[in-house]
């Protein structure tokens, strides 16, 4: 009898397998329905990712925008493997004991950037609490390789919180990414159930520290709504982000990946997302992306171009003569 491969028997979310199902009780509204992946460019993008043996958060996190983004050759690279050491209640990335870090991954990411013709690339990762630096050195090397192979490509990193990893943040910021992104994900009250391996104020401090280390770096963070938060709590998170000097905010609808994940509390209307957008701009964010399908890297390149223009205008206002 043929043996079953390790990949086939691996449970994607072993820590959730014993939990009762959270059955979806609400029908997905029309504004959350997306088209299936079918275009030729989508298939070409997929082939490039496979050729370089890379992972993307687009696939691993079951992003609803994958058809649209890959049809434009936009893909968010996920480094440090595909197995996460944490078990957030919202996330579809596989959890468990990670594989060995691939030393060729940074160069392969850089080569794929050229092949895809990316002007802006987003690099994210799984949490690697098992590594002494949390994977910070691998982030830095990936940035270095992209600069080497494609100097004109701007680089955005979406990092873990590097909890208890001394100097990890300094390693990443020292590699000079154009954008430093770390998502708060939800409001403080929901952290123990939604993001139990993290701490809200630790994540907030990470964002603040990145700006303190490099005042010229653009910082970004995002949250999901529809998890049970209130509008007042969302407003407070916005204020907290601005206190940490965050430049750009993304707000999107949480969508339950599997019945074992946290249930959707409600589907937030496009009108409410527009209200959040107006409030965020009024609080001083330079760029706001707020819509049901918004994700951290959705239209990240276009947002970065707007962010750079907005920051330049803001700095020009500061130094203009009275």
TrEMBL record:
GO biological process per UniProt: protein lipoylation
Q: Which keywords describe this protein according to UniProt?
A: 4Fe-4S, Cytoplasm, Iron, Iron-sulfur, Metal-binding, S-adenosyl-L-methionine, Transferase
Cofactor binding note from Swiss-Prot or TrEMBL: Binds 2 [4Fe-4S] clusters per subunit. One cluster is coordinated with 3 cysteines and an exchangeable S-adenosyl-L-methionine.
Q: Where is this region: Disordered?
A: 1-21
Group of enzyme by EC: transferase
Protein name (record)? Lipoyl synthase
Q: Which organism is it from?
A: Candidatus Endolissoclinum faulkneri L2
List the pathway annotation: Protein modification; protein lipoylation via endogenous pathway; protein N(6)-(lipoyl)lysine from octanoyl-[acyl-carrier-protein]: step 2/2
As recorded in Swiss-Prot or TrEMBL, the protein's gene is named lipA
Q: Which residues bind [4Fe-4S] cluster 2?
A: 84, 88, 91
């Amino acid at each position: 009898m043929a043996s079953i491969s390790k990949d086939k028997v691996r449970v994607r979310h072993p820590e959730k397998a014993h939990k009762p199902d959270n059955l979806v009780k609400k029908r997905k509204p029309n504004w959350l329905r997306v088209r299936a992946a079918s275009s030729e460019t989508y298939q070409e993008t997929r082939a490039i990712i496979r050729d370089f043996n890379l992972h993307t958060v687009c696939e691993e996190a079951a992003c609803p925008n994958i058809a649209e983004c890959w049809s434009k050759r936009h893909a968010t690279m996920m480094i440090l493997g595909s197995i996460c050491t944490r078990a957030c209640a919202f996330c579809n990335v596989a959890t468990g004991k990670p594989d060995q870090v691939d030393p060729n991954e940074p160069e392969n990411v850089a080569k794929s950037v050229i092949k895809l013709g990316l002007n802006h690339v987003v690099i994210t990762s799984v949490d690697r609490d098992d590594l002494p630096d949390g994977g910070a050195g691998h982030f830095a090397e990936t940035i270095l390789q992209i600069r080497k192979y494609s100097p004109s490509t701007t680089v955005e990193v979406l990092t873990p919180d590097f909890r208890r990893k001394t100097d990890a943040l300094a390693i990443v910021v020292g590699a000079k990414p154009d954008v430093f992104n770390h998502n708060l994900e939800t409001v403080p009250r929901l952290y123990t159930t939604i993001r139990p391996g993290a701490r809200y104020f630790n994540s907030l401090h990470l964002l603040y520290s990145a700006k303190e280390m490099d005042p010229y770096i653009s910082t970004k963070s995002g949250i999901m709504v529809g998890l049970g938060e209130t509008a007042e709590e969302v407003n407070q998170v916005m204020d907290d982000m601005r206190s940490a000097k965050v430049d750009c905010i993304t707000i999107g609808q949480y969508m339950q990946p599997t019945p074992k994940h946290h249930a959707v509390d409600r589907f937030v209307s496009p009108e409410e997302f527009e209200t959040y957008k107006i409030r965020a701009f009024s609080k001083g964010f330079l760029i706001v992306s707020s819509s049901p399908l918004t994700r951290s890297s959705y239209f990240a390149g276009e947002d970065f171009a707007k962010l750079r223009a907005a920051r330049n205008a803001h700095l020009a206002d500061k130094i203009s003569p009275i």
